[in-house]
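pasting for the record
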Amino acid sequence: MAKCSICEKGAHFGNNVSHSHRRSNRMWKSNIKSVKAMVNGAPKKIYVCTSCLRSGKVERA
């Protein structure tokens, strides 16, 4: 679910690094919102990242 329908932006993976430099896995989740938008002329609920919303790539219904 955590994937933008417009730009396909999803989760990113990396490491937590402690002060003693031990590493454990971590995940960065993108800021995804559920939005009612116009898709092919009809309103539909889609998941969109906030950068696509701000840039105007999505026409809200």
